[in-house]
Amino acid sequence: MKKLILLGCFALVSVGVQAQSFPWLQIGNEWTYDLYLGWNPLHGLHRIVIDKEVVLDNNVSWMRFRRNHVQGGNILFYYARQEGDKIYTRDLSGSSICIYDFAMLPGDTLFFTPSLGYYAVLDTGSAFIAGRVRRTQTIQLSNWGYQNPLLVVEGIGPVSNPQSLDYPNVCSFFFINMLFCHAAVDGMSAYFKCFSDIDGIYAPFDACLVSTDEAEAPVPIRVWPNPTSERLFVLGAFHAYQMFDAVGRLVLSQIGSAGDVTEIPTTHLPNGVYFLHGQTDVGEHSPVYKVVVAH
Known about the structure:
By secondary structure, the chain is mostly beta strands. The chain has strands spanning 30-37, 42-56, 60-68, 75-83, 86-90, 96-101, 109-113, 117-129, 132-141, 150-153, 157-160, 188-197, 200-202, 222-224, 231-235, 240-245, 250-255, 261-265, 272-279, 289-293.
């Protein structure tokens, strides 16, 4: 069975939906969410990043997700691990809960727990997102009063409502077993905005957070002028730079000189929003910087 899903202006790629799985969980993968807490309009863009691998629970390895609390101060951690096409999270008791299974087909159901309910797979497909072809599932949650279907992208998680792809305010969160759309009842609501990994950047809603935390971003970049027309100047401790467009396509690669100013030509790029990051010779990555090209 082969299907295609159109994501905004993504290039469509026809592949079998049973394609081989690839690693979801890599150190440095990061998500940007607009997070809301409680009844009050307390919200803002926040990064969630995989920062390390840890061993817990009878020598089981987990990838740790780190996010700053929406109110500042406290840091929260989540944990996930992958087994083939399945992704597991760890609850407070240390038990494993399967939250994704990309071997499932339309009509299949994945149960979380009796209290958390399940999701049903409505459709499957694939699309070119963030630098590679990724499988997709359209799912329907059974619990929490969530009425809309969700589009789940391999390696990224829920990103939107597949029936309204250009609508940015759709509750969606990687840890789909959590109550991620309950701010109105004094809980948390999360809205996906951006994702980046080693393959590319996916920023369909023109919102990709740049960290200002020196502890999280020890190797920052200076970028100017921004907006730019003919060229961009970049200063940072990086040997290579890459720029992606808003749909995750690599549009520019540039060799840099660590510690010196690197000039990046932009005259050939159409007007729009782009995302720049750098890499050192030992594999360290910079935060993602939004760049506007306006001729």
